[in-house]
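re the bet — no i am not wrong, look at it urself. input seq straight from the record:
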Amino acid sequence: MPRSRSKHFVEFVKKWTVESTVRISGQSELLHLARTSSRSLWDDRAVLRSVEVTAELVCPRRDEAFHNLRWQQRLELSLDCFVCGRTGRTTSFRYGQEHALCSADRERPEHPAAARIAAFDITDERERTALRVFVDYWWAPFHDAKRDQAAATLPLTPWVRLHLGYYCPQARQSGAFDIQTNMVRPVRDACGHCDHPLATSEEAPAVRLLT
């Protein structure tokens, strides 16, 4: 599957890393240090990584109660963030945006992350729907002082949350639900308006490091 890695994206995240480091520090005297360290990081240690996220749901046959189940073009993924220096951060993605959002922690504000959804592919069949997403993100080694652990290109137990939407023909209202890796399976979801079965998650979404 083609995955565009535009020069615009690379230049954007390089420029943003410098500016974000200053915002997070909150100290103007660190401006020169932030610019110097960020540029050095990009030149010497930053690596563009790619992750594949896949998921599959079993769906009931389409009938008069068809709910138009669809994958939403957003997700949350746990990543180690070299900008705020924290591991296992919940990072939010929306397809089409040039950067993601890192949740940081109580001591640091939410901030843009040098990551994006590079490709978003859906396969719908009669009784199943499958999702395949490619995520690109910049990663560099660091040490999380708070947890006293080194950063990893991908956590040993990666976590992801995926979102789905639907439309209830009986109530004439929309609804939504999500699936994530740390759920006891099988997980069965039904319409929040009429209780019509929508989908069953028999296996957890898979997260695989590609590069």
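see?? Residues 184 and 204 are 9 Å apart (CA to CA). told u. also Confidence is low (pLDDT under 50) at residues 1-5, 18-40. so pay up
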